[in-house]
Amino acid sequence: MSGFKYCVALDIGGTNLRGTWLDFKGRRDKIFLKKRPQNLSGTKHALTLLIQKIIARCPEKPGIIAVASAGPLDVQKKCYLKTVNMPELDFFPIGSFLEEKFSLPVLLENDAQAAALGEVTYGCLQGEDFALVITLGTGVGTGVILDRKIWRAGHVTGPELGHIFLGGEELCGCGQQGCAETLLNKRALLALATKYGLTTTSVRTLINIGQQDKQKFIRLLQDYGARLGLFIAQLQVMLGLKNICICGGLAHFARLSHKFMRATLEKRLSQRSWWLPDTIKYSSNPDLSALLGMLSLATKQY
Ligand SMILES: [Zn+2]
């Protein structure tokens, strides 16, 4: 256990900045949310103001700033690599920027990998030593926990399993075609909804209008669930993990497609039942998973 009592935990996404202070027992302030300006100087400024606000409200001076972010990232050098969805942050050395600004140590971790840690430390897979956590949102992120550690394979970033081939020819931000991300992210879901005459710009609204037109909504759940089931089947061939959690902004929607996802998964793996997971859960508070994961990393609980 580290020597500090409080940490500032942040989650940087394509659209928003989120953050709060936490203590090592997981107690926290409310989560502050700010729109992230789509340029580097605006992002730096908004980040600085958010951290200042969190520090001012923290019961004691925090000992560390722990940042989860969409990436890809070099977590050792604490900088962005060439990003998939945030080109204005390409190669931004966020670690040294924040260390100089606040004279505090900084931790940086991929948001999906942080979410995986959050779910096994404090969330719906609490206490599990092995787990696969899939984050469905603007992108499709994954975190693989093996023997209580984030599995990075041979990559500086950790494996980015949202970029395995799932079908089709759509160009992905990573430079490949037909990645899982192009079929399962928020944009893909809303495009699928439009195909069924359920046009909208937000997932929350989609769930509401789906209640008015249940026939179309069920067809949408069938299609999306089948895609998700195919994705999980591919990952299970490689990983064979017994515990899976779905989090991110699409977690609530994905939960509604559960039986269709499960049907595809069981059909594909019918001859290899040992590849099937025992449990597939959905995060109860997807906004919090990555922040709790950063606390877990800061306090070295996993
Ligand atoms: Zn890709």
Could you characterize what this model shows?
- With 302 residues, the chain is an alpha/beta fold.
- It folds into two domains: 6-114 and 288-298, Nucleotidyltransferase, domain 5 (2-Layer Sandwich), CATH 3.30.420; 126-282, ATPase, nucleotide binding domain (Nucleotidyltransferase, domain 5, 2-Layer Sandwich), CATH 3.30.420.40.
- It has ten helices and twelve strands.
- It has helices at residues 40-57, 94-102, 111-121, 180-184, 186-195, 203-212, 214-239, 251-256, 258-268, 289-298, and strands at residues 6-12, 16-23, 32-35, 64-69, 73-74, 79-80, 106-110, 131-136, 140-146, 149-150, 243-247, 279-282.
- A five-stranded mixed β-sheet has the order 3-2-1-4-7, with helices on both faces. A five-stranded mixed β-sheet has the order 10-9-8-11-12.
- Helix 6 (203-212) packs across helix 7 and helix 7 crosses helix 9 (258-268).
- It is globular.
- The protein binds zinc ion.
- Zinc ion binds at residues 163, 172, 174, 176, 179, 181.
Structure summarized in a few sentences:
This protein has 302 residues and is of the alpha/beta class. The protein has helices at residues 40-57, 94-102, 111-121, 180-184, 186-195, 203-212, 214-239, 251-256, 258-268, 289-298; strands at residues 6-12, 16-23, 32-35, 64-69, 73-74, 79-80, 106-110, 131-136, 140-146, 149-150, 243-247, 279-282.
Detail the topology: elements first, then pairings.
Layout: E1 6-12, E2 16-23, E3 32-35, H1 40-57, E4 64-69, E5 73-74, E6 79-80, H2 94-102, E7 106-110, H3 111-121, E8 131-136, E9 140-146, E10 149-150, H4 180-184, H5 186-195, H6 203-212, H7 214-239, E11 243-247, H8 251-256, H9 258-268, E12 279-282, H10 289-298
Parallel strand pairs: 1-4, 4-7, 8-11, 11-12
Antiparallel strand pairs: 1-2, 2-3, 5-6, 8-9, 9-10
Helix pairs in contact: 3-10, 6-7, 7-9
Bound molecules: zinc ion.
